TrEMBL record:
GO terms for cellular component: endoplasmic reticulum lumen. This is Selenoprotein M. Residues 1-15 form the signal peptide. GO terms for molecular function: oxidoreductase activity. Belongs to the selenoprotein M/F family. Residues 29-103 form the Selenoprotein F/M domain. Keywords: Selenocysteine, Signal. It holds the Pfam family Sep15_SelM. It comes from the Eukaryota.
Length: 127
């Protein structure tokens, strides 16, 4: 019983709560990380996301030596809205988060992104 309760609390603590007010103007995102840091993680879930899932999303990957894996959320002017640590998240949690934020996920890396999702999650462009 206690084990189930503890597991559910840990799951809630590691999940990111989306605050749409804070993320108003969200237009794009990038993942910043270092390959060495990915290899040091206990769980290989984040590395699997970086290697296999980033090509499916309209995300940019930025390699920064020594950086822990983070999702950086940006507005149209490339100003940082939020920074989310990915180290404690599972691959499915990261993909669910991106879906909540409005990022489109292709079935295969070579698939075309439908026109209506080409600039997702951007809503109203100032340009």
């Amino acid at each position: 019983m206690w084990l189930i309760l503890l597991a559910s609390l840990l799951h809630c603590a590691s999940a990111y709560d989306v605050d749409m007010k804070k993320l108003e103007g969200l237009a794009k995102a990038r993942v910043e990380t270092c390959g060495g840091q990915l290899n040091r993680l206990r769980e290989l879930q984040v590395k699997a996301f970086v290697v296999q899932d980033i090509p499916l999303h309209n995300l940019v990957m930025k390699h920064i030596p020594g950086a822990d894996p983070e999702l950086v959320l940006l507005n149209h002017y490339f100003e940082e809205l939020d920074r989310i640590a990915l180290s404690d998240m599972t691959r499915s949690e990261i993909n669910e988060l991106l879906e909540k934020l409005g990022f489109y996920k292709k079935a295969q890396p070579e698939d075309e992104v439908p026109e209506e999702f080409r600039f997702s999650p951007a809503k109203d462009s100032p340009f």
